[in-house]
Design a protein that fits this description.
The chain has 11 helices and 7 strands. The chain has a 3-stranded antiparallel beta sheet with strand order 5-6-7, with helices on one face. A two-stranded antiparallel ribbon has the order 1-4. A two-stranded antiparallel sheet has the order 2-3. Strand 6 and strand 7 form a beta hairpin.
């Protein structure tokens, strides 16, 4: 009996059969060219940027994101409106969204915080999302809210979930199975070398470090504290075991500013206060 040879068409058909479809496609990873960079500034950086036009601290036409922002801002990965819309259309050509409420004029209603609640329907499934304008006004504010709400609602379907999480959501368990029962062995806790023996303990120490840093009101106190052996050991271990928490990166939670930036900003703020005190004769 003759053996049927596989053709290129057969291989392409097999490849297409392996591709996710429907709602599963929303959970598929976005390619690198569809991931954009969003600058994230601290409140102090925003204030510095607004002062005197911020010319001394600004970056214009940033080579990373193309925008204008404080020179020490960190960049976060995100999927933009166009890339998300493209994925929604690939998933369901008839996808739709609508605001949760309407004004008497028939326009989308905003909540008391000025945000927009929407319902996103894909493949017959509806989920809620929320969008905010991030300080924008006018028509740009509404467009920003719609795009933000769509990304937020699509995340409920799993779209770009790895970018929202800023970490590893699904770590493969390569722990060998128990030879007797065939069941996987319990994974041992990750152990670190140093004062802090687990990532959880090191993260807790990082949060306490930030609380202490924020409480500093005097330059001499800050310099003495940052130079203590305990803090020095902590920073060395953080750089080694959680480098993204120190310098910025995907494993640092989105709501946190990297500690390196916080330390530098605090030092500059306290130096500015001391300089002003010396100028006016106010005791430190």
């Amino acid at each position: 009996m003759a053996t049927k040879l596989k053709t290129v068409g057969d291989e392409l058909t097999a490849m297409d059969a392996d591709k996710p479809t429907g709602l599963a496609l929303l959970r598929a990873e976005f390619p690198g060219h569809q991931i954009s960079k969003l600058p994230k500034e601290t409140r102090a950086q925003i204030d510095a940027r607004k002062a005197d036009g911020g010319r001394a601290v600004m970056v214009f036409n940033c080579q990373v994101c193309g925008g204008h922002h404080h020179k020490d801002a960190v960049h976060l990965d995100y999927v933009g409106h166009a890339a998300l819309t493209d994925r929604l259309l690939d998933t369901d050509m008839e996808w739709s969204w609508e605001p949760v409420g309407f004004t008497p004029e028939g326009l989308p209603a905003l909540d008391r915080f000025g945000g927009l609640w929407i319902k996103l329907t894909v493949c017959g499934v509806t989920r809620f999302g929320y969008g905010a304008a991030d300080g924008k006004t006018g028509g740009d504010a509404m467009k920003e809210m719609i795009g933000d709400a769509l990304r937020n609602a699509a995340m409920r379907f799993g779209a770009a979930l790895d970018l929202w999480h800023k970490g590893d959501l699904h770590v493969e368990d390569d722990t060998p199975a128990n030879p007797t029962t065939g069941e996987p062995k319990s994974r041992e806790r990750v152990k670190l070398e140093g004062t802090y023996t687990s990532p959880t303990a090191l993260m807790a120490a990082a949060r306490e470090f930030v609380r202490t840093l924020n409480s500093m009101g005097d330059l001499a106190e800050f310099l003495a504290w940052i130079a203590t052996p305990d803090i020095d050991d902590f920073i060395i271990q953080l750089k080694r075991d959680l480098p993204d928490w120190w310098k910025g990166g995907p494993s640092c939670p989105e709501e946190y500013v990297p500690l390196q930036i916080l330390v530098s900003q605090k030092k500059r703020d306290l130096e500015a206060i001391e300089t002003e005190n010396n100028r006016t004769g106010v005791p430190a």
